[in-house]
Specification:
Layout: H1 5-34, H2 39-56, H3 60-70, H4 78-91, H5 94-105, H6 112-129, H7 132-144, H8 149-166, H9 169-176, H10 181-186, H11 188-204, H12 208-221, H13 226-238, H14 242-255, H15 260-273, H16 277-290, H17 294-308, H18 310-323, H19 327-340, H20 343-361, E1 366-368, E2 374-375, E3 391-393
Antiparallel strand pairs: 1-2, 1-3
Length: 400
Amino acid sequence: MSFNLDTLFSNYLFIIPLVVAIAIGWFLGRRDRRSKVSCPQTSLSSEYFTGLDYLLNEKVDEAIESFIRALEINSDTIPAHLSLAKLFRRKGDVDRAIQIHQKLLARPDLTRSDFMRIQMALARDYYAVGLLDRAENLLEEIIKSGSSKSIQHKALRLLIKLYEKEGEWEQALKAAQKLDPEERRSIATELAHYCCELAEQAITEKKQTLSINYLKRAEQFEADNVRVCFMQARVAMAVGQWKVAIKQLKAISKLDKLFVSEAIPLLGECYSHVNGQREYTEYLRTCLAQAPSTTAIIALAEQIRSDRGIYAAGSFITEELKRRPSIKGFNSLIDLHIEYGSESARDSLTVLRGLTGQLELSKPVYRCNSCGFSGRSLLWQCPSCKSWGTTKPIQGLEGE
């Protein structure tokens, strides 16, 4: 069965108005039973059935307009108005959603519960359209107003996402402290990465103690965060604490084996400073057995080349590529043959290497496991779905 996102989205936009139409019909029917006046209802019912007709003919925008005209604002129809406004926001017509919510807020007979729900919806509108200052002010009002626990949590969660969007990491962490412990645990990954972002800033400003403190806070939120390990290693390397860095980098294989390939180059640098080449070689062999990657193959080939020569290194890569073929590994093997091959073969291999090199550079190196977004840089927050810690090195023929 083929999967078409456009078809799914169009069906999704059709189903929501249909559900809203059913809800509006229920509200109008309920009101009809309450009211004794028949004339005004005929007009309203006419608009409702006109909307249904538009909907059945897949004229969603016209259907929504008819449903809005069929509804007068009262306590029974507020949920329907909120549903219609939500539909506008999801379609990208945020201005219409804002108009509906502002019109609802202007009513003097709103209950406190409805008033808070509408304010929360309006804050989402402002957030969606990029009016972050307005959204922030409204969310802070909702939080200070002593509204229901459910609304408070929703407001805090959206406020945290807003601070994230603005890069206000400390503010996001402060807002998270107001959540219940269970709520905080549900966003532990995000909070750990906020601490890492603050640590990155401290490292840039060469404030080592501050960066260490932020990384300790990150560990408190999420003890098995790979990014924290990498950053702790970087901080240790910056001050020459090579053994501390080695310990952090070797711990990465226990957290996520896919990131071992990222740790290997840093480990090579650390071991070179402590004359630990033999230990480094043993670690690479362990990696090949437990967390195989092309990076480990190439790094071990370099060690073999230093100990036993280029032919032994080439034979090793060839045998490993039979078990784990990859473009990256193939290019490394070509480089060896170019360096020590015959002059007649070298020209042909150089041309081939240029083509395979372009092929390698055209392929992504990392992919988000949440939405599938891929690229050549390791981004701890996916730029597409905004998930944290879901982007990892690609495995297989075109990756590791």
